[in-house]
Amino acid sequence: MHADAFAEALEPHYDDAVRYCRALCARWSPGDADDVLQQALLQALEHFASLRDPARFRSWLFRIVTQCFHAAARRHFWRRFVPLAEAGGGEPMPAVLRGRPDAPGRAALLAALGRLPDRDRAALLLFEVAGMSLEEVGAVQGDRSVSATKSRLSRARRRVRRMLEAGVPTARQGAGEGGVEAATLRLLDEIDARRER
Amino acid sequence: MSELDRELEALRREPVGDSFPAVSAWLHRVEAERARAPRAAAPPRARLLPAARLATALGAVVLLAVACALPVGRTETLGWYASVRLPGGAARAQAGVARLPWARGALAIASAGADGSTTLYLASMRADPAEARRWARGLAALPGAAGVATSPLRDEVVRPAYAAAGRALFGARFPGAGMGERERLGRVLALARELAPGSVVVLEHPREGGALVYPRGSDSAGAVEVTVGDDPQVTLMLLRQRPGAEPDTVVIPLDAGAMAGAGDAERTERVRRALRERGVDNVEVRVENGVVRVTAVPQP
């Protein structure tokens, strides 16, 4: 069965994909990260038969997750202006990140990652979490050369390091200080948690 | 090791829970669902758009074919007329018809016959055959009435859709298209005149408070009569024919109250002056016993 083969190929990389997806969607709620993961898994399942080299499954999967994230980021922008339509049809994926609080001490890293541009954050996480090579990261990102990818990674690392050293405010702290964006994130988390209950 | 490295290392090792079995089972259910309804699982855009485009293209082709097949013009019934032959002259025939209440609003054309009788045509501007039949029954009941008949007044006009398209696209105007009441009246009159060439035309239009005079042009010796009654809003409408040109219309409002109180000489002078002010000087005007008689003068 098609799903059996896909699940078998997915299992060794599943945990990394979940971590990558959560960190990639650092600015959003865990529920939104779940949506990105669900979309990515559906697409991967649909196109699994077209994957010619099973050895490249990992980079192929992370590429799909990254593409789904960028698509969701575009939708996320328009959500501010248009009413949300109910997603039609199909059974939703079981909650993976939704309703599960981030690990203690992870908030600072997520807050710093969340302040990076989307492409820089994706490049850093593909390299550090997905374990991709510079060439693979560059291919996913559409960089013109390895040096461009290396430069992007270096810049992202430098900025995150500075923010961690300077103590970037986390979502909870931001909300306490009256940060609207952070308060929105917290509210979304609470709504998701209530839905789960 | 920097703080960033420590954080990233911790992120790589962070437990994500035991959600894989549930996700794997969900993937199996999704695949089974897709296998049951493969078309439903396809994106609606990919499924529907080609069909919608095809239907739109076919619809456009059909509409174009229909538009090309339809003739541009069509024959339209502008009104109906009823005709009757009555003994005596035109004045007597008109007097008889004038007793019929519905004939007050009718366009009447009287044609003198060789046997001393008068054939009267009553034209209705309403394309209503029932009204024409009602008129025919009324005319048949007149003393001495014979040869009562009804017939539609038909004319070729541009189809309204084509006329609207031509007007919208090119600003073109088509004769007969989108006719107003006044234009319809003019066309009915032109058609009615063909029924009885050389006849005396008496036009009454009291329902709208006006009267219509149609001088017969330079070659006509016929007279045109307008009865000025008690209607306070009498309008004298004159279709002026110039050689080689479309007839144009001159509307002459007359003060019916003042006319009613005036003598025949004063009425004549008022009508003549009103016509002259509007450039109509090739007519003779006479008023006798309250009837304005306008006669076209032959041009040199």
Short description:
The complex is a heterodimer of chains A (197) and B (300). With 197 residues, chain A is mostly helical.
Any descriptors?
heterodimer, A: globular, B: about 300 residues, alpha+beta, 8-stranded mixed beta sheet, about 40% helix
Q: What is the strand and helix layout of this fold?
A:
The complex is a heterodimer of chains A (197) and B (300).
Chain A: H1 2-24, H2 30-47, H3 57-78, H4 106-114, H5 118-128, H6 134-141, H7 146-166, H8 171-176, H9 180-196
Helix pairs in contact in A: 1-2, 1-3, 2-3, 4-7, 5-6, 5-7, 6-7
Chain B: H1 3-13, H2 20-36, H3 38-41, H4 44-69, E1 73-86, H5 90-98, E2 107-112, E3 118-124, H6 129-140, E4 146-158, H7 160-170, H8 181-195, E5 200-203, E6 211-213, E7 223-227, E8 235-240, E9 248-253, H9 256-261, H10 264-277, E10 283-288, E11 291-296
Parallel strand pairs in B: 5-7, 6-8
Antiparallel strand pairs in B: 1-3, 1-4, 2-3, 2-5, 7-11, 8-9, 10-11
Structural summary, described in words:
The complex is a heterodimer of chains A (197) and B (300). Chain A has helices at residues 2-24, 30-47, 57-78, 106-114, 118-128, 134-141, 146-166, 171-176, 180-196. Chain A contains 9 helices and no strands. Chain A is globular and about 50 Å long. In chain A, α1 runs antiparallel to α2 (30-47), α4 (106-114) crosses α7 and α6 (134-141) packs across α7. Helices cover 69% and strands 0% of the residues of chain A. Helix content of chain B is 42%, strand content 25%. Chain B is elongated. In chain B, a hairpin with a 2-residue loop joins β10 and β11 (291-296). Chain B is α+β, with helices and mostly antiparallel strands and 300 residues long. Classes of the chains: A mainly alpha (197), B alpha+beta (300). The A-B interface holds A 1-4, 6-7, 10-11, 14-16, 18-19, 23, 41-42, 45, 89-91, 93-96, 100, 103, 105-106, 108-109, 128-129, 157, 160-161, 164-165 and B 2-4, 7-8, 10-12, 14-17, 19-20, 22-24, 26-31, 33, 40.
